[in-house]
Amino acid sequence: GKENVDSRHGRGRGGETTRFHTVNVAQPVRFSRKCPTGWHHYEGTASCYRVYLNGENYWDAVQTCQRVNGSLATFTADQELRFILAQEWDLEEKAFVRKDQRRFWVGYQYVITNRNHSLEGHWEVAYKGSSEVFLPPDPTFASAMSEKENVLCAQLQCFHFPTLRHHGLHSWYAENCYEKSSFLCKRSQTCVDIKDNIVDEGYYFTPKGNDPCLSCTCHNGEPEMCVAALCERPQGCQQYRKDPKECCKFTCLDP
Question: According to its UniProt record, what is one Pfam family this protein matches (predicted)?
Fold first, then answer.
């Protein structure tokens, strides 16, 4: 903009020239994450994924996932499974997994139908209301198998070494549901504000990104109808720093 505009257009009352100032012009916004901290986002399913490395049995793992508005993960396509296998999930020192390989509870159960010479059965999705999913291939069975168990629970095994991980090598296990294991939760993407709080549908919030002066409406896990506030720079301060998480809040850096 111009500080002094043409006199023919800028004359105010009394003949004074109107002065215009530009202030912090809004920049194009890129929303960084659609999942809470610790979750991995996959655009193909608009979902968030998190491995819990503490060991829990299958039923406790189901409840833990439900408490975070998710469920044990099931997969809709090979691409989704490849995304899971390619992630580096070992972020904690005391992980409930072996160093060379990892097994996670996932949202399938193996129903045994015949115990004659070999175990026969079929996979089922462990919870109702799932969208279309693919079912795993025939599993590897755990060594210590009780004859009373008619339902086993699914573990997905992937590998720690990058070369194996990126080639998508993995195995499916049918395990006693009361064994303790790490587990993989899946939930729909959601609106997450700049302070990492989860935002409910229809509410106003400031999304994660580079602009703390943005106010948007949460709609289907996406920020929509955004409005930006523009801040005038602090008066009497030559050098200053903008607060990355508070709108129109500055720290003066002058001596």
Answer: Lectin_C
